[in-house]
Specification:
Order of helices and strands: HHHHHHEHE
Number of helices: 7
Structural class: mainly alpha
Helix content: 55-70%
Shape: flat
Low-confidence stretches: 1-51
Oligomer: single chain
Length: 237
């Protein structure tokens, strides 16, 4: 056996030995990485599950708030506080669920779509109820600071635009043909009757008590329980 053969045999033996050690080390490292990845995967999955549970609880809370605000708005004679934060939260979740539908199986996607449509209907009905009230007493609401604070910026702009269009229509239709002293739209008659219509705060309503209100004399008139409603202690039915 010559020197080259001896060198070749020794090199081959060393390479085989190194390959065996490297293979064992690689297998051990892969086993460790696999365990770590499994642990991380479990942590990630737990985080996702927790996030989905938080979203569901968050959605349920906002839905309950909006549902109660919707019923109150439909039964109260005047305009109530606008639930802006609740609307924004729900619309963000609607956008999230809408994107989520695309990656879900058909059955799951249909279930999610039903929930999304339910939220959209509730939001639309709530906003339409408020707009109907604004149109009914637009001039009064735009002149009262308390009601202006209760409206969203879009609602306030809508109310002002509605008042402007209503005035233009009345002037073109008949007011311009009347004497100047009879063209006002906000005059008060001698008997105290004002031309600007206001919501009837003495209208009869029904309510349900949500928390302890102490000693209180309830009445069917809205004005009696108005402060309790604003404080969230009662809800209209």
């Amino acid at each position: 056996m010559n020197t080259d053969d001896l060198y070749s045999d020794n090199l081959g033996s060393q390479l085989n030995q190194f390959g065996s050690i490297a293979s064992d080390s690689l297998d051990a490292a892969m086993d460790t990485d696999t365990l770590e990845m499994d642990g991380q995967g479990a942590d990630v999955q737990d985080t996702v599950d927790d996030q989905e549970e938080d979203d569901e609880e968050f959605l349920e809370d906002d839905l309950s708030i909006l549902m109660r605000a919707w019923v109150n708005e439909r039964n109260a004679p005047d305009l109530l506080e606008y639930e802006g934060t609740t609307i924004e939260n729900l619309m963000e979740l609607v956008d999230f669920q809408t994107q989520k539908i695309k990656s879900q199986p058909p059955m799951i996607a249909n279930i999610i779509k039903v929930d999304v449509d339910r939220v959209k209907y509730l939001v639309r009905s709530y906003l339409r109820t408020r707009l109907a009230k604004i149109e009914q007493h637009a001039m009064h609401y735009t002149r009262d600071d308390m009601y202006k604070e209760r409206m969203s910026q879009n609602e306030l702009e809508y109310a002002k635009g509605f008042v402007s269009l209503e005035e233009k229509h009345m002037r073109r239709s008949f007011l311009d043909q009347l004497p100047p002293h009879l063209r006002g739209l906000d005059e008060t008659a001698g008997n105290g009757m004002n031309m600007v219509t206001k919501p009837n705060l003495d209208a009869a309503v029904f309510c349900r008590v949500r928390t302890n209100v102490g000693e209180f004399q309830f009445d069917t008139r809205y004005n009696i329980i108005r402060n309790l409603l604003e404080d969230g202690k009662v809800e209209l039915i």
